[in-house]
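Quick start: what a row looks like.
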Amino acid sequence: MLFWEWEYPPLGEVHHLMVLCFHLQHPHLYSPEGLAHARQLLDQFVVQGVFPAEVRQQKRAQVNSANRTWKITGTPTSFGAYEFPVTWTITAVDIIIGGPENYCERVRGWARSIQQVLSRPYTK
C-alpha cells in the first residue's frame, strides 16, 4: 500500500487512514494510551469528518514528545489490547487484493468498518 501511495501520489490522501487502520488491527503496536488515542482519531476522521490537517493543528501540542507523558508505541511490557475479541470485516489483505484501482474508496471503507466493529457493544 505504501508503494502505491508513493507511485501514485493522489492515493496518499488516505495515508492517515491506512496507517491508522493497520495499527488498530494490530493493537500491540500501540501502548495502551496510544491505542486509546488512535481510537479517538478514528472517530474524528470517520464519524466527525475531521481532516488530518485539522487534527494535526488541534493536537500538535498534546502529542509533541516534549509535552506528552505517555508513549504512543507499544513495548514488550506495555502494549495495547482490546477488552473483547475482535472479528474484523475488512483487513489489509482485502485492500491489497483490490489493487491500486479504487484504493482510496476501499481504505475509507476499511476505516468505516473498523470504527463500526469497535463501536459495537460486546456481550459474552
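That is the whole record. The chain is about 55% helix and 0% strand. The first helix runs from residue 2 to 7.
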